[in-house]
Amino acid sequence: MQLDVVSDTVCPWCYIGKKRLDQALAMHGGDGITLAWRPFQLDASIPEGGVDRKAYMEKKFGAERAKTVGNTIRELGEAAGITFRFDRIERSPNTLDSHRLVRWAGTAGCQNEMVDILFRRYFEDGEDVGSHAILLDAANEAGMDVDIVRDLLQKDADKELIRREDAMARQMGIQGVPSFVINSQWVMVGAQEPETLVRMFDKLLAREAEEAEAATS
Asked: Which of 5, 185, 40 is nearest to 112 (CA)?
């Protein structure tokens, strides 16, 4: 079963969804499931270098609501083992380069770890995941070849590919993240509870087994 998770590296619900997915895979065992992370930019209009987060949030939600918008997320994050530190975040970045790094991490065999690293660095450490210096440090933490990553970041490598994958997700009808796409056919939207994901895994893997048996009989 192919499981593609469509998410953005600055989406707090995606971080919660990631933690719940990890729990679900641990509960299930993960046998027969191939996992890949796919890009979705919540706001591709943010310029390179990012913008001041406080001003950005106030413009998006209004000054008063911006002060409380993270309260529910903090509570759910704590339940999932995340300590959200929105107060540490100074910049709202453009996430195109971070998605490029996630893609390259897939080639290096550490994509799931890289997704965790970027979420933690942004939401818990308050680091700017649009900064090449931070991305290179994240690559080093994941054990990637930093010289190769530096060279790729300095070029336009895979920028158009990331944009096409983002557009493809929207063409599939995905408007919110995280979204779980199974075998390019079924989509579940939102940070699903681990038990819900396990039931989905069991049901679809059983269906695949039945179809495989029918094809050989």
From this structure: 5
Closest to 180 (Cα-Cα) out of 161, 162, 199, 163:
199
CB 98 within 8 A of CB 114: no
The candidate with the shortest Cα–Cα distance to 122, out of 139, 113, 112, 135, is: 135
Which residues have a Cβ under 8 Å from the Cβ of 12 and sit 6 or more positions away? 70, 73, 77, 84, 123
Q: pLDDT tens-digit profile of 154-164? A: 999 999 999 99
Contact by Cβ (8 Å): 93, 45: no
Of 162, 188, 125, residue with least CA distance to 41: 162
Task: Please state, as a whole number, how many other Cβ atoms lie within 10 Å of the Cβ of residue 91.
Answer: 20
Residue 10, beta-bridge partner list: none
Structure token digits, residue 197:
């994901």
Torsion of CA 138, 155, 152, 7, to 10 degrees: 60
The predicted model gives 174-183 an average pLDDT of: 96
Query: Greatest CA separation found in the chain?
Result: 64
Residue 212 has pLDDT above 90, yes or no: no
